[in-house]
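Lab notebook, page 48
Experiment: co-folding of the full assembly
Goal: obtain a model of how the components sit together before planning crosslinking
Operator: M.T.
Materials (sequences as entered):
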Amino acid sequence: MAEDDLVAGSRLLRLDPADNVLVATGAVGPGPAGLHGGGTLRLLDAVTLGHKVAARDISAGEKILKYGVPIGSAVCNIAAGSHVHLHNMKSDYTPTHALAETAKGHPDA
Amino acid sequence: MLDGFLRSDGRKGIRNHLAVVYLVECAHFVASEIVLPYRDLGAQVIGFPGCYPNEYAQRMLERLCTHPNVGAVLLVSLGCESFNRFRLEKTVAATGRPVETIVIQRSGGTRAAIAQGRDWLAARLPELAAARRVPMALSELVVGTVCGGSDGTSGITGNPAAGIAFDRLVAAGARCIFEETGELIGCERIMAARATTPELAAELTASVEKAAAYYATLGYGSFAAGNAEGGLSTIEEKSMGAYAKSGSSPISGLLKPGDIPPKTGLYLLDVVPDGEVRFGFPNISDNAEIVEMMACGAHLTFFVTARGSVVGSALAPVIKICANPDTYARMAGDMDVNAGRILSGTPLEEVGAEIFDLAIAVARGRKTASEALGHAEFILTYKSFEPIGPACLPA
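Observation: model returned without errors.
Model output:
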């Protein structure tokens, strides 16, 4: 698939220039994925609608930025293109409650 | 622009419901049976399940029974509960609304109480149906907004679209209320910067700090498993999405449940109890928030959902805005607005305008999806509040 096709069917959204995560606007990855507004990112994981991926390498302890503001902290090093979720970030306020059976999101959702 | 049912306090309702109110869980079944044949004729069940007294619950039911969308009230008491039915009946009677109390223990039990209640409804409902509407200005309309079953799409589509509709409503003179201070954790500073006075900004910040401490004690944030399934990882991420539904108008005041917004503008509703942690979680499910919006006079509520809520509400219509396009495709019959199409290129402003126009149509009598399906959920639990401070309302 040519890079232009990827961009035309873009599935990753950057909400703020400061953000270090992008939001999936549909099921996407693994592999190269287009960004709305241009550019591509090679995804290491499959993610579903509404989930986040690292726009660049993020170090353990670094703030996760979405909407241009911190939404929690990385609990380990996160490679660019990885799914960013409960397994590698945490709240700076109250712990997140989730059901293990559904927390990763359904690949077929 | 609108029309409504004029009440003795000058407020106008966009619906003319008959509320059948159980005053303890022991009277709930009888209240539901009374309403059953009249469900499609405007009779609805609300109530309070507890047997122990609670000033908050008393005030909430007083506000709800005198809500502008309510035209008549039937109280259903078992007889021995602690709820002050005398005070509630007196409050409703003082507004001129028809009101009656059935005490099951005096009526002679289940069958007799149901028969007595149905007779009263059969006499009252035709009167309500015959009531005439009078002209109503947009400035007399109170609109609330909540979100429930949020996911990673909520903050991109449904909530910002609801925010645009809120901005238009405020600009047109309506009174708008947003809520759940527990879902504003992490955005208290950017929110406080929108307050019309520094004193109000301090109150807004304090209300979110109170929520953070309250939920920390309880051990859970206002965060459900489905939020994580849909891509939300933390309460502060959920908060940023939820905050978007407030739009961008200046914030004119801070209300607590039962406070009526005194003039045009945008208000935050502080839903987290004051004082030490008692009685459990502040709002145990989404309808608790809608009930508190109604107690503040909300005529209708925007409900932004992404995982797919099906609820409506007793007394006040709920406009369901679906943030997630996949959910909309599965559950279109429960939704009023498909905000998920923003992800495929529809401008946010177009969906915001659709929500605004729908609010006007619903205020004029158009049924929402949940009203057409017969949804009339209601929940009220124990809480405790101090009155709002002097800086909380606009001068």
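Interpretation: Chain A touches chain B at residues 13, 15, 23-26, 47-52, 64, 66-67, 69-72, 84-86, 89-99, 102-103, 105-106, 109 (CB under 8 Å).
Next step: discuss with group before ordering constructs.
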